[in-house]
Amino acid sequence: MRWLKKNSLSLAFMIMFVLALAGQAVAGLLQYNDEQMVQGAEPVSLLDYVASSAFAVNVAENWQSEYLQFLLFIMLTVWLVQQGSPESKEPHKAGAESDEDQQIGPYADDDSPAWARVKGARLWLFSNSLGLVMGTIFLLSWLAQSVAGQAAYNADRLGELRDPVTWSSYVTSPEFWDRSLQNWQSELLAVLSMVVLSIYLRQRGSPESKPVGAAHSATGVEG
User: Fold this and answer.
1) Measuring CA to CA, how many Å separate 114 from each of 96, 108, 124, 175?
2) Is the dihedral of CA 166, 168, 172, 178 positive or negative?
3) DSSP labels for 132-200?
4) With 0-12 CB in 10 A as exposed, 13-18 as middle and 19+ as buried, what is 86?
5) pLDDT tens for each residue of 69-101
6) Which of 28, 88, 126, 203 fits as disulfide partner to 82, beta carbons 3.0 to 4.6 Å?
7) Do residues 223 and 85 touch, judged by C-beta distance below 8 A?
């Protein structure tokens, strides 16, 4: 029970993710089979649908936009600040900060990670590991979206007796960028809303909010 309590936030989001993904698969299957019937084609099974490019492109385009959001937020908040927001550092701390502030090398604590005590490439890698992993996941999901999207797009074109397109033609097409940008703009708006609204609004007990009594101008303070 103690383990469950200590990991309850991650477990809750994992369960909701699995349920949402399963729900998307079922809803997508129903919609896909409805379109199949309209076109006079045979319906497909759930297993066939989740292995199809139609399902893969819908999943990948959402994943890449989410990880782009986190990548941009992680990297931009190193240097950019927003006074009054708990999502921002205090203005005077903009930048990579000192070794002492970051508990690096001789300033490491007894329980600091081992790579925080070393120098050179390992320290640089560990110091930037979160951004590097988020960026890698974004690029991989973007690639998956482009490949699955090309396959789904070409399947539609072949159904309309048109020639398929190459990968390079697809990733420069309005179809690809319409899929990408409609997700990007919503993610960026969500981050902007969180940064600005948290200046003036509160949620008692949440670490994403300032304490209820904190001044609107208080920056980098979490409740």
Assistant:
1) 20, 9, 13, 47
2) positive
3) HHHHHHHHHHHHHHHHHHHHHHHHHHHHTT-----HHHHHTSHHHHHHHHHHHHHHHHHHHHHHHHHHH
4) buried
5) 999 999 999 999 999 999 999 998 899 899 999
6) 88
7) no
CA trace torsion 74, 78, 81, 87 (10° rounding): 40
Q: Which residue has the tokens 């319409």?
A: 178
Contact yes or no for 87/221 (Cβ under 8 A)? no
If you ran DSSP here, which 8-state letter would residue 43 be given? P
3-state DSSP call for residue 81?
A: coil
Considering the entire predicted model, what is its pTM?
0.86
Q: What tokens appear for 33 in the block?
A: 């089979």
| Pair of tokens at residue 27 | 């809803």
